[in-house]
Amino acid sequence: MKKGNVVALLPIGVFLVLYLGLGILFEYVLDIQMGFYNIPIVVAFLVALLVACLQNRALDFDKKLEIMGRGVGDKNIFTMILIFLEAGIFVGVVGRESAESVAYFMLSIIPEQYAVIVLFAVACFVSLAMGTSVGTITLLTPIAVAVSNASGFDMSLCVATVIGGSMFGDNLSFISDTTIAACNGQGCKMKDKFKENFFIALPAAVITLVIVLIMSLNSEIGGAVTRDYNLIQIIPYVLVLIGGIIGINVFVVLLTGIVSGSAIMLLTGATKPTELLAAMGKGADGMFETIIVTVLVSAICALIREFGGFDALLSGIKKVFRGKKGGQVGMGVLVGVMDIATANNTVAIVMANPIANEIAKEYGISPKKAASILDTFSCVFQAIIPYGAQMLVAISAASALGTQLSALEIIPKLFYPFLLCISSLVAIALTKKPDR
Does the model's pTM come out above 0.85? Predict the structure, then answer.
């Protein structure tokens, strides 16, 4: 291993201080709603890139541009960008009304005493199909509030159950930006990461269902929530989900979803041709910030690596976390710290990817396991931080319906994220066979 240079990590420190510091100022001092998400993250990364360019005086600027170009031009980075765009178009085409249809369909056929279990199951399915936890929470929180008001179930339990279920899909979905970032960053196939991840997420989900069931049976039930639904629009989601699981190329899977979704939306009269094209553009637009962040982080990390920053960081991790199990825990802590600082699990993964690559090589951790760890731990931390988009969107959606909730009421009932963390640590502790 090359000699490390701690000073090379300064750009990461500058970004974290700038973004986290302004986020805390906006959110808790100036009391700006969604304060963390009012910080222009692209600008913060541009400042960090400037700092990286000013370092390492041994290289002239043209050489640094060449290094940044190699970092951005990496095959995995370019693949990630294309998948981001295609996934955005897919979500734009299909829309999100089908998510509500799934929820009301299940609520109509399952007895009302199991309504909270339905909320969790629907949140798991919808987020798995849509690939977005925030989108799922936006759609299902009003339904959770309606369920609580009609049935008498605890409001914070209903909302927390939706947040937990949404992180299940965020962690596993083939079109989730976290999955795309983790798999392409670590160079593994999505189906391999899914299989590695599924047997960690499943026990956590099952135990969550048991806990919610016990709490539900101890509650007095008032009434049920009913509304019209249309299930035909979930077909594209199901096709994407099945195609991803059986291992069809992700570009083909998403193209199938786009084509089938377009046909269904047009044939059912849910949209017009001109509106469909606009929806495609809007879906792609929704991925632009994530793509720009990916490009900037790739450039910054290329300069940091050249200046010896990753070698210094890896040396520090080796002193604290020893052996393959320790390396996996270190990887989880790394992406967790990045998520706490950025309040964005996709950005956290993109930032942690290059360092995680070095850790994986040093400790003999397979790409699929590394991708699973990065995605899982980023989702755990993202779900429970009180200033994360998931928590803030849920509280805001409930507030819009006249229900006041605080993060302190919701966090203790986020059973799934906490259980996912425990399940992940158990899986690491049980690691025996060498990765292949």
Answer: no
